Amino acid sequence: xxxxxxxxxxxxxxxxxxxxxxxxxxxxxxxxxxxxxxxxxxxxxxxxxxxxxxxxxxxxxxxxxxxxxxxxxxxxxxxxxxxxxxxxxxxxxxxxxxxxxxxxxxxxxxxxxxxxxxxxxxxxxxxxxxxxxxxxxxxxxxxxxxxxxxxxxxxxxxxxxxxxxxxxxxxxxxxxxxxxxxxxxxxxxxxxxxxxxxxxxxxxxxxxxxxxxxxxxxxxxxxxxxxxxxxxxxxxxxxxxxxxxxxxxxxxxxxxxxxxxxxxxxxxxxxxxxxxxxxxxxxxxxxxxxxxxxxxxxxxxxxxxxxxxxxxxxxxxxxxxxxxxx
Amino acid sequence: xxxxxxxxxxxxxxxxxxxxxxxxxxxxxxxxxxxxxxxxxxxxxxxxxxxxxxxxxxxxxxxxxxxxxxxxxxxxxxxxxxxxxxxxxxxxxxxxxxxxxxxxxxxxxxxxxxxxxxxxxxxxxxxxxxxxxxxxxxxxxxxxxxxxxxxxxxxxxxxxxxxxxxxxxxxxxxxxxxxxxxxxxxxxxxxxxxxxxxxxxxxxxxxxxxxxxxxxxxxxxxxxxxxxxxxxxxxxxxxxxxxxxxxxxxxxxxxxxxxxxxxxxxxxxxxxxxxxxxxxxxxxxxxxxxxxxxxxxxxxxxxxxxxxxxxxxxxxxxxxxxxxxxxxxxx
Lengths: 326, 331
Description:
The complex is a heterodimer. Chain A has 2 domains: 2-182, 3-Layer(aba) Sandwich (Rossmann fold); 195-325, Rossmann fold. In chain A, strand 2, helix 2 (43-47) and strand 3 form a beta-alpha-beta unit. The model of chain A has no long low-confidence stretch (mean pLDDT 96). Chain A is built from 12 helices and 14 strands. Chain A has helices at 6-20, 43-47, 59-71, 90-96, 100-103, 133-137, 150-163, 210-224, 242-252, 267-278, 301-307, 311-325; strands spanning 2-5, 24-28, 52-54, 75-80, 112-118, 143-145, 166-172, 179-182, 195-198, 203-207, 229-233, 236-238, 255-262, 288-292. Chain B is α/β, with parallel strands linked by helices. Chain B has a 6-stranded parallel sheet, with helices on both faces. A two-stranded antiparallel sheet of chain B has the order 5-6. In chain B, helix 1 (6-31) packs antiparallel against helix 10 (266-276), helix 2 (46-53) runs parallel beside helix 3 and helix 2 (46-53) packs parallel to helix 8. Chain B is globular. Chains A and B meet through helix 3, helix 4 and helix 5 of A and helix 5, helix 6 and helix 12 of B.
């Protein structure tokens, strides 16, 4: 058993996959120097500059290069430093990478992982803090993965690299310093399978990425007042594991969907709609959604705190649902 | 410079005709409502496709643009399967999932076309990077129009290709128009080749309607690429004899301009050249006749090909991976 931070364990996952498979290559801005957050530190020294490629600040071109290389049998792992910068790469991700398998009638595939980092923390402000995952979940052909802890990130990144599809792998910057032990008998999770992060019986909180940790905090608080919350960690938004969601809803009959992204048009709306249409008879109340109000992420710490959804919001929501349930 | 046998010129003459007649049939069937979508014709630009692709092998990678039928045919793709794809048939290159703007034929190195101008450029750079990294001797070629030079990713890709010395041939078909807007109206830069020098990329601007010039320039450029000397930008000045898409009335072009364009026809120019080399005009007419026969036959077979089964509409969005995935996909 070894203790790793989120950053260290990502490095370990990449290192292991590069060792196993010579077609795995890294590219991105500053990756040879370790990347902006140190995830790839030391890998250029170990694997050489050919396999760990620094690129110009050209998100559109480097995403295209990764996609083109993937079409030719390579397995690129591309780093887009902030998900906010993925806006510059959207043509390639949305129009090219996502559609290649389908448009070519199955002749070609894009086995590529786009690692990117999202979420608000520490005053990164409006252009370095967004949670834009819903955009990618709207595009058939992409896989969207959002790990909630170091151990989860380790398994999901390795599974993503082996998957053979274009994967948007979203890391929450607030989790980067979180530490966790990697068990010796660790098994890789399949892509498309959610997990129950905490068992409970009164209310289900469905979350992903950093919000899973917030939900776990809320669950501990709720437990003190005798409310048992079950936390479902989606792990992957596309594909969405409705079976695990359904199992939990059938147990608790009360649901909160929590994410850090802006509430309006967020992925929580999709989950709420799916539950409402597929599990309506199981519900004892409306599906509650928790997310950011409709505003950019502000700079000042007081404003940032005021905007972000917190464990207190989840606690309040759970109490409200239980009250409604009478 | 490589010497070209007379037989090779005759083959290329036939190749020009195949593309011309193919596009003619696309145009006619599109006008009759038989072609879904909005195909873009390469009529008048055939010499660029044929002159460049004459130097390529099956292993070489080709990316084309929205105006790509000619490139795909010149690269060696099956004419009938290409036409069937444009008609949206199950027997088409992509089983009717791609269409005119998304032709892919991996078995002939055609890795894609793009409906988004300039989107193909970095993909071609990625294929070149793969060839370089995997230590293979093949090269990557990307065709694009002068309209693509207005896109940021064109400049990003030039920089990256120059920096990494990628085996990537940029072939610009400068037909003087970005959709309906003339080059003078969309750029202060007359020659696309001017963009290459700052990135350390060798370049030349040639008459793209002169097959001999294209063949010679492409041969030199590709020889450099095969010697691992880095990327090259070949600018071919050409003329779009058709509109931007089938049905474009071209009110932005004068009658005089269109008449002059017809005089510059690359097929007629090669024909005259071959006659001066002593080839019998009747033989050339027969070559064109054979091309017409082939195209007509293939087109009729493509028209008779089965349409895709709507039951398969979800096939191939993903490779089916796990139970969880299949379940999610089913919804």
